[in-house]
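Subject: sequence -> structure tokens, single chain

Hey, anyone have a minute? Need the predicted structure for the following. Not urgent.
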Amino acid sequence: MVDRRGLIAAGLIALVTCALLLLMDRPPICTCGRIDLWHGALDSGNSQHIADWYSLSHVIHGLLFYPATLWLLRRRPVGVRLALAVAIESAWEILENSPIIIDRYRTATIALGYSGDSVLNSMSDIGMMALGFLFASRAQVWLSVAVAVGFELLALAVIRDNLTLNVLMLTFPVDAIRDWQAAL
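Reply:
Had a minute. Here:
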């Protein structure tokens, strides 16, 4: 059971993040003017709607943040650890939508036309992380690992990208991987 204060803290952190993203002039929704629950195409609609293939990586963030926060804050309630995970995910969403990271995506990955996330997508990403975190808090470790590996392999098979490749290409771009990804 997640404690109430931790849930309130997590919600407040997400609300502050939403406000900051709006202050950063991020579009509230897709500039196309519509809201899709699922956007499966690899085009300018990525990171603009509620969920897309990259939502899987945010669930994996939660699957990873749960054991990390358990290790760091073993004696603290799950809600406090969730609030920390939301703070970390929120910090990433703010950083990910800064000009330096947007430009890095454009130069180092296959996301040539990437313009950042809509606020709706960023809030969904935080929610996806929270779902992964809460799943990991209730599931056996082997199941969390299986879900993470399964999501990585699914995204790799469908879009030739996943959390592992995303981190690799942002930190140490490999031309052969970028060429392979672009061949899709």
